[in-house]
Design brief:
By secondary structure, this protein is of the alpha/beta class. It has one domain: 2-Layer Sandwich (Nucleotidyltransferase, domain 5). It has seven helices and six strands; from the N terminus they run βββαααβαβαααβ. The protein has a six-stranded mixed sheet, with helices on both faces.
Length: 179
């Protein structure tokens, strides 16, 4: 496997069923080759907690594309390599709910990597929060900014690979089938 697609989503509220920002960082042959990020109009209300955490509000996303308009570009990137996220089940879960709510068909199952799960096995004696791992590896982070979080996830994966991690044992499958 030589192409990985690290991604991160931010959400507007506690329901975690819409995206207010997405960041995607593509790794190819051990090098960050491409980055994409966008604010997203979630067409849903914002909770004060999420706005405080991410800095994204209804005003911030005014004029931003809604998820269906961005999906073709996001799908193309996600399909171009093995998706990777830090706490991947969260990000994939939000994506699944967006696809469901907008009635967008995609794959039934997606293979992915989670840098949290990898870290728990590779670095068992430390916490695996994104900011903690970034501090450990000296990676710059503007936390809860999707573009920065996706790049940090990509750089953490690269550190794991440089340290000899064998990714095959960490590949999992996420179901996008409707319940």
């Amino acid at each position: 496997m030589s192409r990985f697609v690290a991604f991160d989503v931010e959400t507007p509220n506690r329901r975690n069923d819409r995206i207010s920002a997405i960041g995607i960082t593509v790794i190819e042959d051990g090098i960050i080759k491409e980055e994409f990020s966008s604010l997203v109009d979630p067409e849903a209300p914002f909770d004060a907690f999420n706005t405080q955490l991410t800095g994204i509000s209804a005003e911030t996303v005014r004029g931003a594309p809604a998820f269906p308009a961005l999906w073709p570009q996001i799908a193309t990137l996600l399909e171009s390599g093995l998706p990777v996220a830090h706490n991947a089940v969260f990000d994939l879960g939000v994506l699944k709910k967006c696809l469901r709510d907008y009635d967008v068909e995609w794959k039934r199952y997606v293979r992915y990597l989670c840098t949290v799960q990898m870290g728990r096995r590779l670095l068992p004696d430390m916490r695996h929060n994104l900011n903690v791992l970034c501090c450990h590896y000296g990676i710059e982070l503007d936390h809860h900014k999707a573009s920065s979080d996706s790049r940090a996830c990509a750089e953490i994966l690269l550190r794991y690979l440089e340290d000899g991690a064998e990714i095959r044992q960490f590949i999992r499958t996420f179901s996008f089938t409707k319940p």
